[in-house]
């Protein structure tokens, strides 16, 4: 980082953190769609979450040491915190799958993980566009897609929960999967929170 202009350092960090979020979502997707070696796969998500914490700490430290920043300080802070939350929630799901000794994934949860991954990929694309806001239309298109995915996530979450309540008589299983489904929905919501910050950045800087 020492050879990169201070202003560009922020964008390098944004992109690294966003890509790490994508990798975490991919690892969770792999766990959920190929339900083998679950503890090892969950550990991979945890390792990526720890890497995300390190990157978040580094960019916050950079923010505290920088007088003039390329974006408003509150936007930088909000963007980084929301990105970190996506990965935290992905890791929480992986952890619950191990802790609850889940033997097979629910179909609704698999669909929500697919939406988490798709949303994370759109987040990364939008963040990669922040370096050149002359193409802000492309950035906003990614934000629109994130909003669409969030609406889709809400719908699938309701359907999955209804199916769980109607088809399952095991109360403990219902409690476990309800928590997992809600956590996945929160991860999707956090992607939308990132999109809102990005939209705000675009409005301020174009």
Describe the 3D structure.
With 206 residues, the chain is mainly alpha-helical. It has one domain: Phosphate transport system protein phou homolog 2, domain 2 (Methane Monooxygenase Hydroxylase, Chain G, domain 1), CATH 1.20.58. It has six helices and no strands. The chain has helices spanning 6-33, 38-65, 73-99, 107-128, 136-167, 171-205. The two termini are 27 Å apart. The mean pLDDT is 93.
Summarize the structure.
This protein is mainly α and 206 residues long.
Secondary-structure blueprint of this entry?
Layout: H1 6-33, H2 38-65, H3 73-99, H4 107-128, H5 136-167, H6 171-205
Helix pairs in contact: 1-2, 1-3, 1-4, 2-3, 3-6, 4-5, 4-6, 5-6
Element-level helix/strand string:
HHHHHH
The total count of helices amounts to 6
Structural class computed from helices and strand pairing: mainly alpha
The domain tally reads 1
Rg to the nearest angstrom? 18 Å
What is the rounded distance between the termini? 27 Å
- Average pLDDT, rounded to a whole number, is 93
Strand content: under 5%
* Assigned CATH class: Mainly Alpha
CATH architecture: Up-down Bundle
At the fourth level of CATH, the homologous superfamily is: Phosphate transport system protein phou homolog 2, domain 2
Which fold does the CATH topology refer to?
Methane Monooxygenase Hydroxylase, Chain G, domain 1
Strand segment tally: 0
Largest sheet: none
Shape, per Cα inertia axes: globular
Task: Provide the descriptors you would attach to this structure in a database record.
206 residues, Methane Monooxygenase Hydroxylase, Chain G, domain 1, 0% strand
């Amino acid at each position: 980082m020492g050879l990169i202009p201070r202003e560009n350092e922020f964008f390098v960090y944004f992109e690294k953190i966003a890509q790490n979020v994508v990798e975490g979502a991919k690892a969770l997707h792999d766990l959920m769609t190929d339900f083998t070696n679950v503890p090892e796969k969950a550990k991979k998500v945890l390792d990526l979450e720890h890497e995300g914490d390190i990157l978040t700490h580094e960019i916050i430290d950079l923010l505290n040491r920088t007088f003039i920043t390329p974006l408003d300080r509150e936007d930088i802070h909000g963007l980084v915190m929301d990105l970190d939350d996506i990965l935290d929630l992905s890791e929480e799901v992986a952890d619950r799958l191990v802790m609850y000794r889940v033997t097979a994934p629910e179909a609704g949860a698999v669909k929500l993980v697919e939406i988490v991954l798709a949303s994370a990929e759109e987040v990364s694309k939008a963040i990669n566009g922040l370096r050149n806001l002359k193409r802000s239309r492309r950035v906003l298109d990614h934000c629109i897609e994130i909003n669409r995915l969030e609406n889709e996530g809400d719908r699938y979450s309701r359907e999955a929960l209804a199916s769980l309540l109607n088809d399952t008589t095991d109360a403990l299983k219902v409690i476990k999967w309800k928590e997992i489904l809600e956590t996945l929905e929160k991860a999707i919501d956090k992607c939308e929170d990132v999109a809102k910050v990005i939209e705000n950045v675009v409005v301020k800087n174009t």
